[in-house]
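Weekend entry, working from home. Most of the wet-lab plans are on hold until the incubator is repaired, so I used the time to fold the two sequences that have been sitting in the queue since the last round of cloning. Logging both here for the record. First:
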Amino acid sequence: FPVTIGAEDYLFCRVRACSADVPNRNGDAFPYMVLKSHYHTFIGKGVYTNHDTDGVEKIKGIILDATFKEDETHGAWVELLIAVDRANEDLCRMITRGQVTDVSMGCLVPRATCSICGNESRNEQDEYGDVIDKCENIKYYKGGTFNGQKVFENCYDVEFVEISWVTDGADEEAFALDIDIAPVDIPDNVVSVIQLDRYRDWE
C-alpha cells in the first residue's frame, strides 16, 4: 500500500548538476542543444552517494525537478531540485554542515564524437567488452591534451540516470546552490504525494 510522506521527512536542495559546452575532468562534454533537449530525463531518477547505485537500498532520495538555465556570467547548465530522505542522517548532516557540497551526474551516452578528429563512437564492444569504435585520440588522450588541444568527447542522445553527492566531482561547477529549502518554497506541482510515495515504494 502507498505510504503518504510529509515534506518534513526530506531535505530539499537545489544543485547545479551539469554544465553545457565545458569538458569535465573525465573528458566528457555536453553540447548546449543536447542539455537543452535532454535535461528533463533527470526527473524521477534517484539520488545516491559516490555513484553507488547497485541496489534500491542505496537510494538516498529522488530528483523532483530539472530546469535548463543560462546567463552571460555562468554559461548554461542544468539545475535540479532534489529531496534527500532525512532517514539518511549522516548524509543530511554533512550536507547541511557544508562537509559535502559537490554533486556528480550519471548518464547513458549512446553516441559521442571526438573533439580532435570528429570520429563518432557508438560504444560498440567486442566479445570481451572492450570498446572497438573509439579513435586513437580518445583511447590514449581523453581528459588530457594532444598537440596542445584538449581531448574530450562530445556526448549525444544522453539519458541522465542519477545524481550523486561526492567529495570531488568531475564537473567543477556542479555543486549545491541552496540547501534545506523550506517546503513552503517548493512548488505544489513538484512536491506531490504521488512522487514521494513512488520513491518510498522503492525502499
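Second, folded right after the first finished:
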Amino acid sequence: RFAAAAALVEHTHQVLDSIDRLLTRLGDAEANHRGFLLTKDRSFLEPYTRAGNEARALAGNLVALVAGRPAQQARARRLATLAGARLDEMAYVLDVNDNGPAAAVARISEGLGKRLMDDLRVLATDMRASETTLLTQRANQARLAERGALGFAVVSLLVAIALGFVAISVERSFARRRGALMAEMAARAAAEREALAAASNLQ
C-alpha cells in the first residue's frame, strides 16, 4: 500500500515538473527567436528550434500524464494547443521577417504572441494549483500508509520475538523431559541389575 501511495506522489511531481519544463522551453524558444530577430545571427536558430521541439514533446507528454482525470486532461490539451499556437506564431514571424524587419515588427505588434503566452501561463498556474492540491492529498495518504506499514512491521517483529521465546521455552521443556526420562530409565536399569544380582545370590 505504501509503495502504491509513494508512486502516486512521484507521479504528481512528474506532472508539476513537466508543466515547469514546458514553460521553460517556451521561454528559451522565445529568447532565441528574439535574439535572431534583433541580431540576424543564425546561431540563435538551432537552440530556438530545439527548445520548440522539446516544448511540443513536453506538451504531448503532459496530456498523457494526466490521463484518467478529465478536468486536468482538458487543461493539458488546451495547454498543448496554446503552446503549439505560440510556436507556430514564432515560426510565422520568422517567415514574414524574410520580407524585411518591418513586417516582423508589425506582426509582433499585433500582440498575438503575447496573448498566447499570457493565456498559457494562466492555464499552467491553474494546472499547478490542481496538482499541488492533489500532491497534498497523496502525500498524506503516503504518510498514513507508511505508518501502517511501520506498525505492521513492528507487530510482525513482536510476534517473531514472542514465537522465539515460545520456541526456547518448548525446547527447554523438552530438554527437561528428556533428562527426567533418561534418569528414570537409568534408575530402572539399575534396579533391574540389583534384582538380578539378588536373585543370583539366592541361588
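Plan for Monday: verify the second prediction. The chain has a mean pLDDT of 82.
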